[in-house]
Amino acid sequence: MNSTLSTAPGRHDHPPQPTAPVRQQRRVGLVDRMALHLGVALITWSRRPRAVESRERRANRIEQELARLARERAAERELRLTVPMR
């Protein structure tokens, strides 16, 4: 028995889904969009830094960061120089 049966034409969804009527999408109104923008603006404004960082404090922070990087580089160099070669 070498015959094959064909499927029904026009059926491409497995399992078949019932066809629903197309609904129109709801659009956001102008007032809602303005309220959303106002809310986002208020949130970003409330999360701003309260006190401005002084110039001296910023310089100290940068110096500390550079010193930390130098220590890390020195430690990695020391490690690479002391580890036996393969």
Topology summary:
Layout: H1 30-46, H2 55-82
Notes on the structure:
The protein is mostly helical and about 90 residues long. It has a domain at about 55-85. Helices cover about 50% and strands about 0% of the residues. It has helices at about 30-45, 55-80.
What's the short version?
This protein has 86 residues and is mostly helical. The protein has a domain at 56-86. The chain contains 2 helices and no strands.
Which secondary-structure class do the elements indicate? mainly alpha
The radius of gyration computed from the alpha-carbon positions, rounded to a whole number of angstroms, is 33 Å
- Backbone shape: flat
Number of strands: 0
* N to C succession of SSEs: HH
Main sheet? Answer: none
What percentage of the residues does DSSP assign to strands (E)? under 5%
Q: Overall pLDDT, averaged?
A: 85
Note the total helix count. 2
DSSP helix fraction: 40-55%
Low-confidence stretches: none
Q: Gap between N and C termini, in Å? A: 68 Å
Labels describing this entry:
86 residues, flat
